[in-house]
# Entry
Amino acid sequence: MNDYHVNIFFCAEDGGYVADIPDLIACSAYGQTPAEALEQLQIAHALRVCAFLASYRGASLKVEVVS
# Structure
């Protein structure tokens, strides 16, 4: 993700921060702090890459959320 410009801005409507990668359509995330928004963006970016690779290989992407 080091090759992409990242925007992080405060969203008054939600009371938190939004991080996005303007060069990638629909790659954004939300967090209560700028650091949390960036962390969530890194996860979103990784999932985006996994989804792309899965579709390229003709496979479906199965995601398990562990909390």
Observations:
- The longest strand covers residues 7-11.
- The mean pLDDT is 87.
